[in-house]
Design a protein that fits this description.
This protein has a six-stranded antiparallel beta sheet with strand order 1-2-3-4-6-5, with helices on one face. The longest helix is centred in the C-terminal third of the chain and has 9 residues. The termini are far apart. Strand 3 and strand 4 form a beta hairpin. By secondary structure, it is mostly beta strands.
Length: 105
């Protein structure tokens, strides 16, 4: 089972700069990107992987999955990810509530 998530908070933008496409910013003052390479987490491919940076430092990771795949992903919660609907996210404390609210919309 592939459980390797290549993203860790605090890493630099340059680690993935050629694998990212900019999107509308989710949080004012932060840059949002979609990770375009294939990724498998617990043998499940996310629909979208959004990385949010502040001053080129990774401050949030948002993983979106099909509803039918959610049951296979319970172990991800052991990695400090928080589930909101079909999303799992991890972020720095300063923006955690803003990420949460944005995923409810």
């Amino acid at each position: 089972m592939n459980t390797n998530i290549p993203f860790q908070l605090g890493m630099e933008y340059e680690n993935w700069e050629f694998d990212l496409e900019p999107i509308n910013d989710r949080i004012i003052g932060h840059d949002s990107y979609i990770y375009i390479k294939k990724l498998s987490i617990f043998d499940v491919e996310p629909i979208n992987v959004e990385l949010i940076f502040h001053w080129d430092i990774l401050v949030a990771i948002i993983l979106e999955f099909e509803e039918s795949d959610i049951i296979k992903l319970d172990k991800i919660l052991l990695s400090d990810y928080i589930r909101v609907n079909n999303y799992f996210y991890k972020s720095e404390v300063q923006i955690k509530s803003r990420i949460y609210k944005s995923l409810l919309q």
